[in-house]
TrEMBL record:
InterPro entries: Cas1_AcylTrans_dom, NXPE4_C. The chain crosses the membrane at residues 273-291, 325-343, 355-375, 395-416, 446-466, 473-495, 507-526, 561-579, 599-617, 659-680, 692-711, 731-750. It is an enzyme of class 2 (transferase). Its EC number is 2.3.1.45. The keyword Transmembrane helix applies. Residues 22-72 form the NXPE C-terminal domain. This is N-acetylneuraminate (7)9-O-acetyltransferase. Its main location: Golgi. The keyword Ribosomal protein does not apply. Residues 253-734 form the Cas1p 10 TM acyl transferase domain.
Amino acid sequence: FKGGDTCEYLLSSGRFLGEKVWQPHSCMMHKYKNSEAKNCLIDKHVVFIGDSRIRQLFYSFIKLINPQVKEEGIKHGNIPFEDKSASIKVDFLWYPEVNGSMRQRIKSWTESSVAKPHIIVVGAATWSIKIHNGSNEALAQYKINITSIAPLLEKLAISSDVYWVLQDPVYEDMLSESRKMITNEKIDAYNEAAVRILNSSSRNSKAKVKVFSVSKLIAQETIMKSVDGLHLPESSRDTNAMILMNVYCNKIMKPIDGSCCQPQPPLTLIQKIAFCFFTLSIIGYLIISLIHRNNYRKNKSCTDLESGEEKKPAISTPNVSTLEMLLHCFCKLGLIMTYFYLCDRANLFMKENKFYTHSSFFIPIVYILVLGVFYTENTKETKVLNREQTDEWKGWMQLVILIYHISGASTFLPVYMHIRVLVAAYLFQTGYGHFSYFWIKGDFGVYRVCQVLFRLNFLVVVLCIVMDRPYQFYYFVPLVTVWFMIIYATLAVWPQIVQKKANGNCLWHFGLLLKLICLLTCIYFLSYSQGAFEKIFSFWPLSKCFELNGNVYEWWFRWKLDRYVVFHGMLFAFIYLALQKHQMISEGKGDPLFSNRVSNVLLFISIVSFLTYSIWASSCKNKTECNELHPSVSVVQILAFILIRNIPGYVRSVYSSFFAWFGKISLELFICQYHIWLAADTKGILVLIPGYPMFNVLVSTFIFVCVAHEISQITNDLAQIVVPKDNSTLLKRLLCIAGFFSGLHFFSAMQDQSRH
């Protein structure tokens, strides 16, 4: 931990991830849109003072506000720009030399009666080198002039943001004869003088002129592409303008993916309460552990001298045991949540932007595929979608999704479309799994519902409190939670139709199909009636759960994207269980699912369908159009995969224990990645070890997987305590949970009021 201000890193250091992607050291840079730039600079006055290079930076800066601007101003004169819609004024003032004229202009702003610019960007030197033929006398005069200007700039820096742009290197081989005297050696001398003199007299840390030296690093990589050897190519000056925008606007706009120059967010009231709770849990657990250890020593087995038998120590009461287990879970969870907070809320660890390359996505995919195939074992049962197989399916899908997120592959449309199928496949399993349970077991009790809801939502609720994020932010958990409740409501509502009842009378099968048709009709109606959908989820308390940024549009978009796949999972489960009941499929070890002829035909159709979908997804040109088709066609590849995986008897009889292990903690992996593997709420990458990208990924991944596994165990342990099987005890616990959420809502309302 080096400490320091991330603004200093942004202004002074970084590297190129690709040809045009600049990565500042230790922090993330936001790419500002025109609307965001206007909102940040509303009612602001920005001034650029200097030579032709500063003029270039001026044009790149105003293009962030208005991309239609053309570089048509007077070359050796002042150029004004104004955006009346946002009351933004940006001026370029032609002062190619650091001399008396520049000093006089800067001095005029220090007068108390004159309105000062909010941002001042200054820089000049190459003209002094050119006019005076690179003489030492010119350098000496430059030092004198900048010494006289420095106190004025420092005075302005008290109330304005003042930046001194160091001179970029030149490409000497490309310079014209009239510019041959501008050498990199001379430029370095002028830069050294500026850095040494600026801020030398300042005693106030707030009154510092910010030295914009990062443009030198950018120019070193790109000046070869210059048209004249002196002026930067357009992409490089655009990067400089974006850096300037991040330095000023990040602290105002607070973009999630712009960690540079952002102060650490203050602790909220709920976060403080959570911190106190976890601290008390740790203290309580330590006290109970010490008491138990002391009791154990007192009641330690001792040899009975007469009989020679050992006396067993007294057994602790169940209540103490439950309390100790509860405190132990919260103790571990408190330490884990501290790590979450330090990784993604405190400015302790570095964060970097994602950068996609084909190799960064496909090489890890091949690697985990080889590992998965290597760890192959026989399944305990050979049924279609047995437990080991579904865990394996969840596991490899989760690993692919993780690689997709960390590599930034969402920018590559074919990969994005295939990942959408994997997310749909998770929801397909939700429909298949819960329908199968309710259909076979007929268990619609409160205990089952509470167990599922607790296991799905426990981690997310804790993260909402600790990380100060809305419930809808972790969109996948609200999605599977709502679909679980829809499945439950569909099957539990009168008349309750389960397999046992349907076996007695075949007409009940038609009754269930009628229920499924009603469900499909409701889904179809809501997907094409955004207004009705938003009205349903805008009612309190649903609005508290499903709003993001003040509306439920994001929730509607996420729900609509995979609206049919849960229904498809339920329908598949119904058909499969009906075929199984009537012994129309063979699930023996090594046996094909159907007769050889039927199996071969279905296998051929499945492979063709699978490849056809992949070809279609790979040929997608427009994300919006492909997303419109996705809900209807994603089931094709899902069903094709299920048949390919289950029709051949041998393939159905084996599974990858490597993938299955990850599948058991897939939900925790998906949620934990937001903050302790990725960073800035998934927008960037967490950097624990700077300078060694591969080693950093290995270390952060190891910690991330261990934490996910530990949280899975904590959730399972707490589920046994919080959701007991005894109905009267369960009712008391539910009342306690209701009280907890009421208190959470009360403190949340207090928080919102204090923010406003």
